[in-house]
Task: structure prediction
Amino acid sequence: MRPVTRSSSAKEIESQIEETAAKLNAAKAEIGKVVFGQNTVVDQTLMTLMAGGHVLLIGVPGLAKTLLVETIADVFGLSNARIQCTPDLMPADVTGSEVLEESADGKRSFRFIKGPVFTQFLMVDEINRASPRTQSALLQAMQEREVSVSGKAHALPAPFHVLATQNPIEQEGTYPLPEAQLDRFLMQVDVDYPDEDAERQVLLVTTSNKSTKPKAVLKDKDLLAIQSLVRDMPVGEKVADAILNIVRGARPGDDAADIVNQYVAWAPGPRASQAFMLAGRAKALLDGRPAASVDDIIELAEPILKHRMALSYQARADGVGLRDILEVLTGDL
Result:
């Protein structure tokens, strides 16, 4: 797949969209051989990667979150590493550290040993079981795609994506992620229980001696080309207006709706608008369409805003949830 440049014509972009959509459908088919009954989760995870972002997968243990991450890494042909978060995990266990070495002639020098973050596809399993200090070790990597150790910056490979799994915070031994880190995840994808047919398939396939290994359909350079194509796709004025209306409407103020002023404790920042813009294009590309629509933006509102907004205690007391607020924000679009 050749990369799209800013000088690419509309016809070339349209051709690239058709070619890319076919490859993405093939990738989805390979993922579906291993992960059953999670079509929405797979789609939203793929959109996040196509948009160049990071994804936070939330659900109780045993819902194939880890399997999903490993399968996508295989299908996209990316180098991958896994960090199992525990309360005693240290920042150096993530980023790496410098060690003092002595050469044969007796000279001593420091050498940097890279940590597991130096990969293209980093799975951070149960991220909220790590302490806040260790969680913060990922902040620079997720935003700047580099790690600073002892005053030296070390670039991460491209593409670089973090796919973190998180247990519900009500479970024992978990630490809530700080708002600054949550904002660095392009989407929060909730992984729910599979339906009966999918669970039956899981039951039969995973308890037999037969195992299915997904094939690599894409390569790292293909993913970079897809990310470039997403940024080249046009965005209509109505779509941009819809994004601004949703994000700015979610912020309490004189012009905000009563439900927002009454129940929103903290609201989304400009990264939410950027996430909408990229994810909307990625969704259109995944569907084989040349441009995002207002309906795409409405559909993506929950996974993009869920982790970027907090409701007040009054909202809980009155039984008001995020969906109630989103219905008001998207009602006139």
Notes: The longest strand covers residues 96-102.
